[in-house]
Amino acid sequence: PPLITATLAVIVSFLPMLFITGMMGPYMRPMALNVPVTMIMSMAVSFTITPWLAYHLLKRGYPAGGGNDAGGVGTPGDAGAPQEESAEQIKRTVLYRLFRPLMAPLITSRPKAWVFLGCVGVLLVASGMLAATRHVPLKMLPFDNKSELLLVLDFDEGTTLERTDATIRRIEGSLRTVPEVAGFTSYVGVASPMDFNGLVRHYYLRQGSNVAEVQINLVPKKERSFKSHALGLRLRDRLTEVASAGGANLKIVEAPPGPPVISTIVAEVFGRPDHDYQDLLAAARTVRQRLEREPGVVDVDDVAEAGQAKWVFLPDKTKAAINRISTEDIAAALQTALAGSHVGALRTERERNPLEIIVRLSRSERSSVEDLSRIRVKAASGHLVALGELGAWSKHRVDQTIYHKDLRRVAYVFAETAGRAPAGAVVDIQADRAV
What we know:
Layout: H1 2-14, H2 25-28, H3 31-47, H4 49-58, H5 80-91, H6 94-108, H7 110-132, E1 148-155, H8 161-175, E2 181-188, H9 196-201, E3 211-218, H10 228-245, E4 248-253, E5 265-270, H11 277-293, E6 297-302, E7 309-315, H12 317-322, H13 327-338, E8 341-346, E9 355-359, H14 369-373, E10 376-378, E11 384-386, E12 391-397, E13 403-405, E14 408-417, H15 422-431
Antiparallel strand pairs: 1-3, 1-4, 2-3, 5-14, 6-14, 7-12, 8-9, 10-11, 13-14
Helix pairs in contact: 1-3, 6-7, 8-10
């Protein structure tokens, strides 16, 4: 029956959601169970409660003896005339006259019925081929028309805050020429206010001189001819050129129409336990190069960090002990010189929150090892000793962050799609994975 067939079709269409992985899995996987249970219960109701309820709501009495008594209920033989009259009324309806010429040949002729079923099968296969031949894009949720866009910029580790700010100012100048932009707010060195998308993508953890974000507010939807997605496509080339000139990796982030994910395309590179993490990063760079060659794939990035050096002060415990200076005193002096120390708070009438008072050396006095070596540490006897006399500086390379998944080391490569369905790009990339 059509009811059973339709129920099974809906159940089968939702079962693939059981195999959705990643951050969308917790949102979509329950539907693979909830929908079949709901459809089975609906079918049970249609077979039991619906006929019973229809019988009691639609039943009526027929007059006995051909209709002499309006209120009586006749025998089955007496009810023949009213039933024939009702059948004739149905045959005179427009729906019956349209539907019967179509269905009667399929019911009365077996060859015609098989031809009809064959045509339905061919159309079913043809509809599936539309996706296989890329005539219909495969996307879980359509793009929404939001009133905001977010620009996320990542510079190499060690980039100065001044260089990051200079690039942001050039991007701001480019945005001022776009009539659809109502305003924007830039955040250099800190994260923008967190939303649900930023929570999932960990944007709230972004801090440092090499990160920046620009929150763009668009004019109302009725006052612009471009949707937010189309506007992002239009601005991408212009903004990417400005960001690349400043050495930044630019990402145009749109508010997702559904549950957010860390990225539209995520490649996970694993290796054997005896592989060094640099081997995984080298393989991740190969994957990144392949993604960058794919048309419609943008905002490609990976977890590899730019090489940078750090200076470590190694105290000479003998000299420090002679001057009665502890390692804690040396660390406190460097902390105050480089990061500053909180010494109090200032309360003013025009400030909602107390202003912190931080004591720190000026940038010109803490920009080199020689400057830091001249810092004087107070000994227990009261005399001052230069930091350079209490130890030596050693140059080291900053360690690469090592990521893990399921207790295995992994290197990630992230990418987005612009003007193209993600499924098509993933299929094309996986097609030459073994090459």
